[in-house]
Structures are given as structure tokens and as C-alpha cells.
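Dear H.,

Thanks for agreeing to be a second pair of eyes. The structure we're designing against is below in C-alpha cell form, covering all 204 positions.
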């Protein structure tokens, strides 16, 4: 009976230690993944905005003088990053002036959007092109979420590895610690059994 109880106590102690460790690690990993997802979205927005500032500054003159070829060449800088799937320059009357597309993605018809817009699984930038404080056109840049998804996939892999290592470490430690924790309880149960069996109440 004592042997069975000892086994039950040790098994439960192992389960408690492992469960506590795994929950703690899961909460920590969840916090890490959520924070990294926020950082990844912010980095993606900043990446699009950086290219927007670069292209907007260089396409200004081309739009002013109606140089469609130069504007198209400026937009071609988007090729340096595969996640950029489309770009366009519109006139002040929202007429398409120059464009760039990757994978058959076409620039949209303007509808008054401004700044960062998230829709259809992409991040889009609508940035006014100004000259002497007046709007002379609009720059459009679209990026898909491949970099964001790749980063989240990497986070998932790291989390899985950490969780696997945690389970192994928690199991090893629990096997070592549960004996120290459960042994006094097992000894008490044994003495209680002896007192009950032999009616020897002098046992401490």
C-alpha cells in the first residue's frame, strides 16, 4: 500500500513540476511571439515608408516635367526587395503616370486613401507627392506579407525547440527533485501505518 502511495505521490509531483514549467515557458513564448509580431509589423511599415520617402524625393522632378520614363526607372528600385509587388505614380488628377508590378499585381485606382493601408493580405502606402507645398501627385507602394510570415514561422520554430528542451529539462529535474519532496511524506505515511497497525503512539 505504501509502495503504491509512494509511486502515486512521486508521479503527481513529477506531473505538477512539469506542468508548471511547461505553462511558464508557454506564457513566456507567447509573450515573445506577440511582441515580435508587433515589432515585425512596425518594421514592415517603416520599410515601406522608407522606400516611399526615397522614391517620392526622386520622382518629384519626373512628375513635374512629365518624364514618364524616368519615373518608371525610379520605381524600378522596388525590384531590390521581392516583397514589394507593385508601385505607381499618379498625377494630381489621380491619373496613372508610371507603374511597376511584380507577379502580375496591378496598381489600384485611387480612392482618396492616405498613409498606410492594410488590406487583401498586403501593406499599401499612399503618399502625396508635393512641390512647393502643393500636391502634384500620389505615390503608391504595395508590399506583401512574405517577410512577416517568414518571421512568424521562424518564431514558431524557435518556440517549438524551446518547448521541447523545456519538457526534457523539466522531466529530468522533476525526477531528481520529486524524491526529496515526496520522501518525507512517504516516511510519514509509513510511520502512520505502523502506529495504526501496532498501536504504538510513542512513535514520532
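And this is the sequence the design step returned. I haven't edited it by hand at all.
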Amino acid at each position: 500500500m505504501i509502495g503504491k502511495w509512494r509511486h502515486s505521490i512521486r508521479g503527481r509531483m513529477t506531473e505538477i513540476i512539469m506542468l508548471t514549467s511547461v505553462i511558464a515557458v508557454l506564457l513566456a513564448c507567447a509573450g515573445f511571439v506577440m511582441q515580435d509580431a508587433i515589432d515585425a509589423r512596425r518594421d514592415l511599415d517603416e520599410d515601406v515608408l522608407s522606400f516611399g520617402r526615397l522614391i517620392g524625393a526622386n520622382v518629384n522632378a519626373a512628375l513635374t516635367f512629365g518624364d514618364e520614363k524616368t519615373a518608371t526607372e525610379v520605381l524600378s528600385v522596388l525590384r531590390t526587395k521581392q516583397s514589394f509587388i507593385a508601385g505607381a505614380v499618379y498625377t494630381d488628377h489621380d491619373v496613372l503616370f508610371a507603374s511597376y508590378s511584380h507577379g502580375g499585381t496591378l496598381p489600384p485606382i485611387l480612392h482618396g486613401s492616405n498613409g498606410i493601408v492594410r488590406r487583401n493580405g498586403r501593406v499599401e502606402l499612399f503618399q502625396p507627392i508635393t512641390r512647393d507645398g502643393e500636391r502634384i501627385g500620389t505615390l503608391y507602394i504595395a508590399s506583401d506579407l512574405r517577410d512577416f510570415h517568414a518571421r512568424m514561422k521562424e518564431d514558431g520554430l524557435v518556440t517549438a525547440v524551446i518547448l521541447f528542451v523545456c519538457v526534457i529539462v523539466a522531466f529530468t529535474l522533476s525526477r531528481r527533485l520529486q524524491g526529496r519532496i515526496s520522501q518525507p511524506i512517504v516516511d510519514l505515511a509509513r510511520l502512520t501505518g505502523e502506529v495504526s497497525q501496532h498501536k504504538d503512539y510513542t512513535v514520532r
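Two observations from my side: The chain has a mean pLDDT of 83. The helical segments are 2-64, 68-75, 146-198.

Warmly,
E.
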